[in-house]
Design goal:
The protein is mainly beta and 86 residues long. It is built from one helix and six strands; from the N terminus they run E-E-E-E-E-E-H. It has one domain (7-78). Strands 1-4-3 form a three-stranded antiparallel sheet, with no helix packed on it.
């Protein structure tokens, strides 16, 4: 991801839980685009760095009734930033 360029994730069903480690809270923020439905989540890159984003989804066929997904999120500087300022 690029700093200050949010990415909207769309899911079939909303996540049951989300988790970002405390140190990662400086790197990305999560916003629910559709708070009532919860199936659209925006990932907002705040500063350069890496963190892990974890989400749990309902899955009746999985042990415990939930499926766990985890992503490594890398945030880089905007490569066009210097060109726009010039």
């Amino acid at each position: 991801l690029v700093v200050n360029r949010p990415r909207v994730l769309r899911f079939r069903e909303p996540p049951v839980r989300t988790y970002i480690p405390e140190a990662g809270a400086k790197v990305i923020a999560l916003r629910y685009v559709d708070p009532e439905g919860g199936a659209h989540v925006a990932v907002e890159p705040l500063e350069t760095g890496s963190t892990v984003l974890s989400m749990w989804f309902r899955d009746p066929g999985a042990p415990g009734g939930q499926q766990y997904l985890s992503w490594l999120v890398n945030v880089v500087e905007d490569p066009e930033r210097g060109r726009r300022l010039a």
